[in-house]
Amino acid sequence: MVLALSDPPALHAHPAPRGRWHAPWRVDGTALPPHQLAVAKGLVLLLWFFGEAGRLRAPFVAILPPLEWLPGDATVWTLRALIAIGSVLVLGGRAPRFGCGIVSGALFVGITMNALVYRNSLFFVAAVLLLMATHVGAISTWLLRLQFSVMYAAAALNKVLIADWRDGTYFEHWQTVVLDNTWWADLDASLPGPPLGVLAGWAVIVTEFGLAAALMHRRTVHGALVVALLFHTLPVLTDRLTFGIFYSALALSFFVFLEPEEATDASRPARIAHDPRLPWALTAAYVTAALIKDGLVALT
Amino acid sequence: MQRITTGDRWRVRLAVALLVGQVVMAGVARFHDDRFFTWAPHDEWTDFEIEATVDGRPLSPAEIVERYGYTAVGAEPRAGAHVLRAVRLAEKREHADDPAAVVVRYRVNGGEEQTWSWP
In sequence order, what are the residues at sequence separation of 6 or more whose Cβ sits closer than 8 angstroms to the Cβ of residue A178? Predict the structure, then answer.
């Protein structure tokens, strides 16, 4: 069931089905494989649910300086309109790749023209949607999955090069001061060996490096997905930390690793399979995101 | 299986460029304090306090938010350098005609207080 991830597939294109409007819960009959279309639909819904389009701001201390020349309010409203248009195209199945490209482009401009708006969560959504917008076949699916490995590898590399992560200072401060978790000190005192901050910091670093590698190999990808879900769910359970849209978007995006092989095997005829479980999984993820956001679920 | 079009090739190149760009930015991050497009979420927690005066008059907390986008007293969960970058670039690009004297006091991960000033 889980597509092997080892060598990049050759570039072969499937004949793309002609774009037609379909119900938002359908995921078949488009140029995107069903799982990826489900993820794309979920991501655009999450963008609106978490109000990300509404948080875009006029150009200010832009990451790319030329973007500061853009007119303020007009640019913001244009980007919001583009996200809306792209969302309709994705949800309606009319031109999902093009729709993903529009939403992704608007997000990239939005987070780049105002450095205070930039967040890794929005960068993640924009990157995933852009990779879906560029989908041409099995190689595109491979690149999309490679994105996750790049993310984890870069995150681990950043952390391992910071002394405060290696010696536990960051985790200690994060838990005891920022989150004010009184149980942290008690747990630290009860455990033998190195300080808990050191263990936690290195656990995160090792896990992220491990995920970067394991997600790209057939034999380990399934286990890696389980580890990744647990890894990201733990702070949700202990501290109700979803980091905005990130937890929901990432958990939903893991569906791209569950693509049936025939949907992306370049040597087989293009037969887009409609998995009836996908819409329900999408709905479950959406509802879960809503519950987490509203804090209705007591997770601690 | 259809013929590979030029558009298909450019789509793949764009995807590859996105991934390569992230690797490049991860390398750039080794030599630069900014953490954009490098997957550096919550690598450090910086508590900061911004004080600014224009023509000898201290700016109010509301004016500091308006001028720099950050609250006068706050925390930056990604990279403390982003606070300093916002102040520096706001002064250079937005307020070259009404410059302020700015002092930012900050602690990274609860460490020793550091001070940064502009100009």
Answer: B45, B75
Residues of B with CB under 8 A from a CB of A: 1-5, 8-9, 11-12, 14-16, 18-19, 22-23, 26, 29-30, 35-45, 69-70, 75, 78, 82, 85-86, 89-90, 93-94, 108-111
- Beta carbons within 10 angstroms of residue A258's beta carbon: 17
Average pLDDT over residues B1-5: 66
Task: Yes or no: say if A155 and A148 are a contact pair by the CB < 8 Å rule.
Answer: no
Is pTM, for the whole model, over 0.90? no
Using one digit for the tens of pLDDT, what is the confidence trace for B26-80? 999 888 888 889 898 778 899 999 999 999 999 999 999 999 999 999 999 888 9
* A110, two tokens: 């939005």
State the count of interchain CB pairs (< 8 A) between A and B: 126
User: For A131-190, how does the pLDDT look when each residue is reduced to its tens digit (9 = 90+)?
Assistant: 999 999 889 999 999 999 999 999 999 999 999 999 999 999 999 999 888 888 888 888
ipTM score of complex: 0.92
Q: Where are the domains of chain A?
A: 34-294
Residues A79 and A126: beta-carbon distance below 8 Å: no
Region A1-23: mean pLDDT is 56
Contact (Cβ atoms closer than 8 angstroms) between residue A259 and residue A3: yes
Distance CA A83, CA A110 (A): 11
CA distance A151 to chain B (A): 6
How far apart are alpha carbons A259 and A262 in whole angstroms?
8
Q: Crossing angle of helices A34-49/A246-253, nearest 10°?
A: 170
Q: How far apart are CA A83 and CA A35, in angstroms?
A: 21
Q: How far, in Å, are A67, B12, B22 from residue B36 at the CA level?
A: 16, 24, 10
